[in-house]
Amino acid sequence: MKLFEDSFSYSNQLGQRQGAGVVYLDVFHPDILAFLSTKKENADEKVRVKTPSLGVTVPDKFYELARNNEDMYLFSPYSVEKEYGKPYNYIDITAMYDELVANPNITKTKINARELETEISKLQQESGYPYIVNVDTANRHNPIDGKIIMSNLCSEILQVQTPSELNDAQEFVKLGTDISCNLGSTNILNMMTSPDFGRSIRAMTRALTFVTDSSSIDAVPSIKNGNQQAHTFGLGAMGLHSYLAKHHIEYGSPESVEFTNIYFMLMNYWTLVESNNIARERQETFVGFEKSKYADGSYFDKYVTGQYVPKSDRIKELFDGHFIPQAKDWEELRELVKKDGLYHQNRLAVAPNAQSLTLTTVRLLSIQSHNVLKNVKKRKSEKSIIQPTVFQQTQFLSIPQPTTWTCVKLSTFMPLRLNTLIKVCH
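-> structure tokens emitted (426 positions)
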């Protein structure tokens, strides 16, 4: 991790953007406590890391042990791989936990699960780390054949990977697949006033397809290989707080949750439509499509029920004029996907990338008062441009609340013409 930290300081895009990275570790790894200690404020400088972010992958079994206040075992990755013939990360800990505990060939140590959970919670309060990826939940909802073992720096990418094998000369014996983040974002405020929501999303899908087709990272062959096979991109959405504030919807309320569900359902639908169109045009799908839940149609089961439509009067009003796919539309799409496939393995990501965004400040209401903007202004190395606030709603709530100024990134990536999108991406 110290070597990673040093390398990030040199990987700064010719001084334009500071390097960054994240390290993920499984909660059942024997180094988990030492790993967490690297972000403590009072940690020894020899072990403390400042730049890298920390993430922990947490299987369901850990929560079960912590809930019951039981001891847990930490398993040696070396002995696990030696015994089962595959990397530790690809072992289903929840399913195999008891077997691993009983296996005398597995080196293991014992700690208290609830004490570890307390340690994680304390560190999150102290430093904001580690990120948590509930890996079993991610894999239950994963429609792709394979296993999700980690995420990325922003924890918005959940994509399967396959391990590479190298010989002693550091040459690839088996080339695995790793992930290239080809990201962009919608502006919720602009999208909700778009005369054609679907056309805008389809144009963005084409633009990001151009990006993923053009990306070729020769320096990291496993990423190049993964990108060529998966054609993956991540289209996200920013400006949710702004939109909710504009329409006087309290963040976290049932209406805000319903709005978010419908908005991302529309993004999902239209990216699926265009990915299917591209697959039909090119007569090509992502590698492994035939083993996915898209191919057998089971991915669409929850959508053909017709439940994914606005239900409250307020949300119906906000989406008035926008096409909302009904059960028959999802059924038609399912049959088209089963017939012609999808070009992209993954299409959506909650958060966007910094290159396609502008830095904007949004006034939010919270129970705490602090000024994050002051710290943002000091980040001269990133050459950030601070723009005026989007919405300063003085009567957002009926009672006075302390004000929190939070810096968020709001996409301007919503041109309607494809050639403009291509120029932006290029």
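The chain has 16 helices and eleven strands.
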